[in-house]
Automatic annotation (TrEMBL):
<feature type="domain" description="MotA/TolQ/ExbB proton channel">
    <location>
        <begin position="94"/>
        <end position="215"/>
    </location>
</feature>
<keyword id="KW-0812">Transmembrane</keyword>
<keyword id="KW-0472">Membrane</keyword>
<dbReference type="GO" id="GO:0005886">
    <property type="term" value="C:plasma membrane"/>
</dbReference>
<keyword id="KW-0653">Protein transport</keyword>
<comment type="similarity">
    <text>Belongs to the exbB/tolQ family.</text>
</comment>
<dbReference type="InterPro" id="IPR050790">
    <property type="entry name" value="ExbB/TolQ_transport"/>
</dbReference>
<feature type="transmembrane region" description="Helical">
    <location>
        <begin position="134"/>
        <end position="160"/>
    </location>
</feature>
<dbReference type="GO" id="GO:0017038">
    <property type="term" value="P:protein import"/>
</dbReference>
<dbReference type="Pfam" id="PF01618">
    <property type="entry name" value="MotA_ExbB"/>
</dbReference>
<keyword id="KW-0813">Transport</keyword>
<keyword id="KW-1003">Cell membrane</keyword>
<feature type="transmembrane region" description="Helical">
    <location>
        <begin position="37"/>
        <end position="54"/>
    </location>
</feature>
<keyword id="KW-1133">Transmembrane helix</keyword>
<feature type="transmembrane region" description="Helical">
    <location>
        <begin position="180"/>
        <end position="200"/>
    </location>
</feature>
<dbReference type="InterPro" id="IPR002898">
    <property type="entry name" value="MotA_ExbB_proton_chnl"/>
</dbReference>
<protein>
    <submittedName>
        <fullName>MotA/TolQ/ExbB proton channel family protein</fullName>
    </submittedName>
</protein>
Length: 229
């Protein structure tokens, strides 16, 4: 009898000493259909956010790469009256700033206000192109945590429903589906929201840098036109 009790105690101690581990996949499986649907939506939003970020990042990076000697060449061409070469240089450079300067060159001979207006309108189009789909990142950054909290509410409703149907006897295992849904969806929503928020702000900073370059080149070109011949 004592030997049996000793073996049972050793078995209990061995089971208690075993390390409990949780995998992400198992957490998602234990979350039930409601939690799995929420997690799937968040994964889709994460994929969209990463795609937009990298696509815009390389586009803005390409737009920011300019030849430091570009405006010097434009100055020489314009002062020498070689407008065709100046236009060809703008077309070959193919950056937002060069397109603005090219727009201004195509208006040379008209009043300075008309040239300035044409450059401003072209600048608005270039900024719109740079900011394409960036607002979607801001939307995902705000919507993902709310979708995660929606999963939390669904999980709590499932847990309360199980309590109501338990006849007053609460079993942790019975509540696990609801609790897993509540916790995993909240964490997933916050992770997606944080990633999208950081990506959005990084793109805004990079885009502002390109817009500053565009403004600087436009002002330099207008100053060139105001120079005395």
């Amino acid at each position: 009898m004592l030997l049996f009790i000793q073996e049972a105690a050793e078995q209990v101690l061995e089971e208690a000493s075993q390390e409990k581990t949780l995998s992400i996949i198992q957490l998602i499986k234990d979350g039930g259909p409601g939690g799995q649907i929420i997690i799937a939506i968040l994964f889709v939003l994460l994929g969209v956010a990463l795609y937009i970020y990298f696509e815009r990042f390389f586009a803005v990076k390409s737009a920011s790469q300019e030849d430091s000697n570009f405006m010097n060449q434009i100055r020489d061409f314009v002062l020498n009256g070689n407008l065709d070469s100046a236009k060809a240089l703008c077309e070959s450079t193919n950056t937002p700033s060069s397109r603005l300067v090219g727009k201004g060159i195509s208006r040379i001979g008209k009043p300075l206000d008309d040239i300035n207006t044409a450059i401003e309108n072209a600048g608005k189009l270039e900024v719109y192109k740079l900011e394409k789909n960036v607002s979607v990142l801001a939307t995902i950054a705000g919507a993902a945590p709310m979708i995660g909290f929606l999963g939390t509410v669904i999980g709590m409703i499932v847990a309360i429903h199980e309590i109501a149907n338990s006849g007053g006897q609460i079993d942790i295992k019975m509540l696990s589906d609801g609790l897993y849904t509540a916790m995993t969806t909240t964490v997933a929503g916050l992770i997606v929201g944080i990633v999208a928020y950081i990506a959005y702000n990084h793109l805004v900073v990079r885009t502002d840098k390109v817009v500053y370059q565009m403004e600087a080149k436009s002002v330099e070109f207008l100053d060139l036109l105001n120079e005395p011949v």
